[in-house]
């Protein structure tokens, strides 16, 4: 088996790292499996009973783990006490800044359920005015939490670096906006800011049952992708991994894009572009049957273009699972059929024969839920 480790180790493993790793392992096991005894945890994690008991005492002291009664045993002897993550002790606050007309926020449970949500209209706000809208929404959502807040997760459009600085988000008029640090100062809470498509892929991983390497394509005002390889989100050298929206497809030009090039993926596939093309085709059609055919042609061509752009990525990474997030009435039909057919015809059947392409089941809360995963992962090490 190939060892999953970095090629060039740069630091030695310290005892406190081992302790943190074991603590995370126990929390992760409880988060995923729930209701385990100390003996179950020792068996499941390979840690000793003493280590598990010690870590559980520490976690109970922080109110992160609770005892939930005893297991009914058929065998004689003392029944085992069952433990779980204290799922109601904390809540998570998430914001989704990717909508082009309104910003959304929610309070979520540790299991990723939306408990309450709020919205503010962006009303064309840009730059500092857009920041003020975000701060206003965040304060509103925080006020609605009914338990201590574990942290704040934010999915932002554009390129976001590891420190939560939004390097470039044209729709919000932000360049080098230190969103994470500013909101952390404003609220006194731990804040994590990530790109919206990267948040979406984390939601699919944690709550959508995607256990494997995964590429998620998010189609909205723009088009972006999130990549999860070997259990890690891939951010890239300049934090722009997955930014496929302004990659030109093919050599036959195509529609002019806002960026000045012709035939970018976004020019074929973004929601405003598809909606406008469908509107025009429907208006020009002589009969309803003609209109239906024209719409199907537009969606098929967009799906084919997406397949062309994804084929080398799928081939290079040997991906078997692709998930689409966006309006199902546009994506789930001729478009996704054309994408998967194009992918199959352009890659090696032996390697990608099992390739699946599906719609996400996370709906419009996908970025909110993914931002919550960032908080769970940063604060507790679970996902
Ligand atoms: Zn472009």
From TrEMBL:
<dbReference type="InterPro" id="IPR036388">
    <property type="entry name" value="WH-like_DNA-bd_sf"/>
</dbReference>
<comment type="similarity">
    <text>Belongs to the ROK (NagC/XylR) family.</text>
</comment>
<protein>
    <submittedName>
        <fullName>ROK family transcriptional regulator</fullName>
    </submittedName>
</protein>
<dbReference type="InterPro" id="IPR000600">
    <property type="entry name" value="ROK"/>
</dbReference>
<dbReference type="InterPro" id="IPR036390">
    <property type="entry name" value="WH_DNA-bd_sf"/>
</dbReference>
<dbReference type="Pfam" id="PF00480">
    <property type="entry name" value="ROK"/>
</dbReference>
<dbReference type="InterPro" id="IPR043129">
    <property type="entry name" value="ATPase_NBD"/>
</dbReference>
<dbReference type="InterPro" id="IPR049874">
    <property type="entry name" value="ROK_cs"/>
</dbReference>
